[in-house]
Amino acid sequence: MKREYVYPAFGRFWHWTQAFLILFLAVTGFEIHGSLRFFGYEQAVRFHNGAAFSFLVLIAFAVFWHFTTDEWRQYVPTWKNVRAQAEYYLFGIFQDAPHPTRKTKLKKLNPLQKIVYASLKLFVLPLVWVSGLLYMFYRYPQKHEVLALDVTTLEPIALAHTAGAFALLVFLVAHLYLTTTGHTVTSNLKAMVTGWEDVEEEPAPGAGPSHAAATPDAR
Amino acid sequence: MKKILLALVGLAVAASLVVAQVRKKDAGPKPVEALRETYRTKTKPSVDHALFAQLKGPFRRPQDVTAACISCHNGRHTEVMASSHWSWERVEYVAGKGIRAVGKKNVLNNFCIGVAGSQQSCDKCHAGYGWADASFDFSNPMNVDCLACHDNGGTYAKKTGGAGLPEPGLDLAAVARKVGRPQRENCGMCHFFGGGGNNVKHGDLDVALLDTTREVDVHMGTDGADMACVDCHRAEKHQMLGKAYSLSSMNRNRVACESCHGAVPHEDDLLNKHGYKVACQTCHIPEYAKVNATKLRWDWSTAGKLRDGKPYEEEDGDGNHAYLSIKGTFTWGKDVVPEYAWFDGTASHYLLGETFDPSRPLVLNPLGGEYDVPEAKVAPVKVHRARQIYDTKQRVLVQPKLFSAAPGDGGYWGDFDWNAAAAAGMKEVGLPYSGSYGFAETEMNWPVNHMVAPKEKAVSCEECHAREGGRLAKVGGFYLPGRDRSRFLDGLGTTLLLATLGAVVVHGGARIWFRRRRHAGGK
Lengths: 219, 523
Known about the structure:
The structure holds 2 protein chains of 2 kinds. In chain A, 55% of the residues lie in helices and 4% in strands. Chain A is mostly helical. A two-stranded antiparallel ribbon of chain A has the order 1-2. The longest helix of chain A is centred in the N-terminal third of the chain and has 28 residues, at 41-68. In chain A, helix 1 crosses helix 5. Chain A has helices spanning 9-33, 41-68, 82-90, 111-136, 155-178, 187-194; strands at residues 2-5, 196-199. By secondary structure, chain B is of the alpha+beta class. Chain B folds into 2 domains: 47-88 and 126-180, no CATH class; 183-462, no CATH class. Chain B has 16 helices and 15 strands. The interface between A and B is large, with 36 and 41 residues.
């Protein structure tokens, strides 16, 4: 084991701000949806819209960060070792088997995470943002305006937004649980707070096949 | 160089802050405050009619007063005679019926049903003198009643059952010397008491509006803007703005909140956007009939019961008529929450002689509009329900003769004989009557426009954006956040969420169990 600085400061800031925003948007959003009452409808709408704009600003910075630091490459999905990772979660984890992939600063996501996070970033979040913006700037059928711009009903927009919200909630639950699957129950959480994580040593050449993926991609 | 740049940026920020502050102060009073100021200032008339020799009198007949008015205001009578206050009909396009002359003259309602046969009584509210029957001369300017609308002295009154003629014995010259711009009393005399009593018909037009507070009506409250009816219902050449959809059909000549308050009256854009599809009245008139009750149901079928051969009346606990032998049974409501409907400013009408299906309530004036119609907005409506007489063989509504001038003339209020009343009334409108009658359920829509509440009392978000029991629970055709959802999607989402939670519990439990076993085995 050695300590390595896995999560740089902006990455952590982005992660926790996004986590708070998504939770807050979920509470206010499901109040708007009629599932719960907490802030009161008017406040819920105001907070939800405000948080949504904050989210967009954060996203703008995060996108910039991802490209300037090449972080985006972390999320390029691969089928390599997906099976090994799935088998680990299904069987190995109960036998205290070693993680099939090794976490480093340059390779902090395992193959399953890559697939899940890439789909979040490419499909679920854009679905929520686009439907959310359409929701806010939806043009009701009205007179004296360009008819061609009218969307005739809010329903598909609202349903897409709801679907995205449920998908994010499901992700949130699974994500929170999977943070407990590090070396210790809280080691992943601590790493996301401090940036430092205990990671396995670079294996000696000829180590077990399950560690094959540990070598960072040549860049 | 860097220092200069920083200084420049600092200066720019400071300057923009100063400009923002100054601009705020320059914004002046809010529009609504400016409006209040405008209407609270009462203008003094430029002339004093008391000084005109033409109005010295004495006037023997009311028509002589009209002649005196016309001697100066020559031509004004033609304007009145072109207005619906005189003609009691308008030529309008009625949806599904074509271009028709419709108005009080020939459209039925579900209160006192219709004018025909009862002109002597109903025409107390005609802006004219002597319309007692079909022979009235609508082209005679001397029959125009100027005083009903222009008496500012509060002494003018029309005789009940007098076909629009004034109370006998009035000093008409004294009335004529105190004429001016119409006051609340002038309009209210008819528009408050339509349907045979105060606030019976509209529900939002109550004699209490003569002297009221802004809590009841933010526009008319004497502690508020203190506005007169004609401040909104402006007239150009005696054509008043505004219309009641009990009789009107077309989306024109309406009074609009926006004409004073603008299309973006709120500081909050989210509220302004509601205005695309929600009428101002929907949020700003949470209840109507705030002072006195209004009639919500009128059952004509129970009319005609007599005690000792004489008609009688019963009151409900609040002092409203619960039963009248001449009219039947009533249900009243106070502080009524309106019903809501899509409304694009058009209404169709049941026209005399049309057949209908008596097994379902007949809507006498269906309001036009649905979500997709660009002009349509959700609007508050008073719905008045009734059971009224119809011809069971021909399946048409009956125009009965109600007012009775002399026993045996068929007037129901004298003879209490529905058959005779139906025969006399239908003869008056030139329609056949089969001789057999029944009572049919009818509904009328009265869009609510008055008794606007102070903004603090406006309807809150939750009252409509509610899953169940919201004010708009029955208004369909669109997706309302907070009310609507896809049961399938919500079910699927909840199931997935619970399944994930379940998987977490099982997986986590298994990890703990295996770890314990390992530790136990290791010992």
